[in-house]
Amino acid sequence: MVDDPSLVLAAVDQVPFILVVCEGPELRVLTLSAATRSVLAGREFRGRPIREVIKDLAGQQFVDAYYDVYRTGEPVNGREWRAHISAPDGSVLEMFANFTITPWVVDGERRGVIGIGFDVTEAVRQRHAAAEQTASLQRRYEQSRDVITALQRELLPAGLPVLPGAQVAASYLLAEADTAAGGDWFDAIAQRDGRIALIVGDVVGHGVTASGVMGQLRAVLQDRLEEGAGIVEALAAADRFATRVPAAHATTVAMASLDPVSGEVSYCTAGHPAPLVVSPSGATRYLALTGGAPLGTGGSFPIRQDQLDNGDLLLLYSDGILERPGRDHPSSAGELAQVAADSAAGRALHDPVATPAERVCSQTVELLVRATGHTDDITLLAVQRVPVVPDLALEMPAQPDQLRAARRRLAKWLGQIGATGEDVFALQHAVGELLANAVEHAGTDPEATVTVEATLTPAGVVLASVTDVGTWRAPQRQLNRGRGLALTAQLVSLLEVDHTETGTVARVSKPLSRPARLLDLTVAAPHPARDDEPEFRIVEQAGDDEAHVRLEGPLDLTTATLVHRELLRRSRGGTVPLTVDLSGVTHLSSAGVSALHHVAGHHATQAPLVLDAAPGTPAQVILELVALLPTR
How many CA atoms lie within 13 A of 314 on its CB side? Predict the structure, then answer.
């Protein structure tokens, strides 16, 4: 083999794992092992950049990893990453892989990149199957997960409205699914004027108390918005509630009101991250913060305006998606924008059935969290402007052989407007019963026709009518007859029948909704332990002045009480001027924000309070967001 390099290459080619060797800045592929070629069947690879060879993985973070390794010289390791790979026949192969991508160095110079991986799909699936059968998982599921899941489902919307000109989706992921319910919530409310109100909020802390307050705040906002209130009026009502209920203090809210016809958006960020807009071209932009303050902190709720074009997607989210371990806000916001754009365009995980809004809400969370884990609840709410589907208008001969075609046309129309399979089933059967009655009313008249009309209202309700020319026949007490109207009434929310000597009009209505997703990423999204988090400290600045301090380390749920107590002690309850430098704070959670707001409240009418943080630090971003620092 020493004398014949071809034997060495043949041996390398037969290694029983994925092997990719790339050369140069473009990372052109020199060789793939036989195992790799079997996974990437039918592809040209020699001399081609790796981004072209595996372009179907472009939105799944694998391609970027190769070029990041060449650029930085630092290896990248992945464990059980899920990948969707396009096969030559057009199907999509799902696999899980463990891999390492390392620099290829020759004589001290970076030559390229080498990727080595193992297909662990079968092992992952076997472990999943075994885990589902274990008694411990069953006990865990019964004792905690069921309770928390039920609590979240009861307090959050049962579904999202299906509306003309807009597709809405949402997802939520608990921070500690086995031990604590959270305080995040979302809502999408169809208003009287045809606009859609979209809300994402975040109550400080976790546990039953936070969930209970979340449910109350959601009820307050929902009641005001359904009565026709605008953003300011609705938030003012929630703000009054937050001033009376201590657990609601410093709750953050992002609220937007969208006119799906014109695309006009009004919004307010009450201490909450700014919404993200994703265009069909893949361009992204964050809306400007409005400067609103968290609830119960004495601030106001300024409104800004924006415009969504057809196909644009608006994403509201809680800060848990940004405050992931090892990520600062600027880089995390950039990742969110990129992954959301890839998910919306279908460039990430393969899910052709889901709408772009649904892909953004589910895939964005999975792709971002699997690399970093997460320490807080994550909630996403998306709406995309889409063309309004024309109303259904169908005229058919009053003949029994026309019923099947009419039901198919109705089902197709319902699918186009976004109805779920359950709603399609109910309306198809209800209208089918009315059609059958209409055909019977027409009798033997060969010229008789039946008309079916259906529309989706701005409130998310399907109104359908069946009109015939014939004689009304009251339901008879006969075996196998007279039950159509009774069945129809059970399938829809309203049934009306108007009949005269010349004909009958039967009308039904049914609200449409699509479910939000309670995500479970416990397998795909590990929670890695962090060993780089410094201990929390309160450091007195030069001169031994206890009213001039610097905070260092994480200001979170575990340290917020200490900070609240210590700062008020040093300022004598707000009567002595206090300066706090937060530049050294590595993580500023909502509990920490609440503590600072409480301290600021004590100083509001007494001695000055100065909160400061260097530009670009985690504290500066959060303090500006929650109106404790002026917007730069």
Answer: 32
Handedness of CA 27, 28, 33, 34 (dihedral sign): positive
Q: Which residue is associated with the tokens 């079968």?
A: 122
Phi and psi (nearest 5°) for 415? -65, -40
CATH code, 392-514:
3.30.565.10
Q: Which CATH class is domain 5-124?
A: alpha beta
What are the backbone angles phi and psi of residue 99, rounded to the nearest 5°?
-155, 160
- The three-state DSSP-derived secondary structure of 552-566 is EEEECCCCHHHHHHH
Angle at 12 between CA 29 and CA 119, to 5 degrees: 75
d(CA 452, CA 494): 17
For residue 53, give Cα distances in angstroms to 27, 36, 39, 42, 43.
11, 12, 12, 11, 7
Q: Which helix (H) or strand (E) holds 602?
A: helix 590-603
Token pair of 257, please?
Answer: 């009101």
Ranges of CATH 3.30.450.20 domains, the chain: 5-124
Pick the CATH number of 151-388 from 3.40.190.290, 3.90.1170.20, 3.40.50.1100, 3.60.40.10: 3.60.40.10
Alpha-helical regions (H) of 396-464: 403-417, 421-442
Q: Where in the chain is the domain with CATH 3.60.40.10?
A: 151-388
Residues contacting 387, CB < 8 A, separation 6+:
165, 310
What's the angle, vertex CA 398, arms to CA 394 and CA 402, rounded to 5? 65
**pLDDT for residue 521:** 52
Residue 45 predicted with pLDDT over 90:
yes
401 phi and psi angles, rounded to 5 deg: -75, -5
Q: Provide the residue type at 192 as one letter.
A: R
Residue 584, classed as helix, strand or coil, is strand
Predicted confidence band at 524 (pLDDT cuts at 50, 70, 90)?
very low
CB count, 10 Å around CB of 235?
Answer: 25
Task: Specify the pLDDT at position 181.
Answer: 57
pTM above 0.85, yes or no: no
CATH of region 537-625: 3.30.750.24
Quote the percentage of the chain above a pLDDT of 90.
56
Handedness of CA 403, 405, 409, 411 (dihedral sign): positive
Where does CATH 3.30.750.24 sit in the chain? 537-625
The sheet carrying 18-23 orders its strands as: 28-32, 18-23, 109-119, 92-106, 76-86
Distance CA 451, CA 394 (A): 6
Give the whole-number percent of the chain exceeding pLDDT 70: 88
Query: How many of the other CB atoms lie within 10 Å of CB of 384?
Result: 25
Rounded Cα–Cα distance for residues 225 and 187 (Å):
11
Q: In sequence order, which residues have a C-beta less than 8 Å from that of residue 555 and are 6 or more positions away?
A: 536, 563, 582, 585, 587, 588, 589, 592, 595, 619
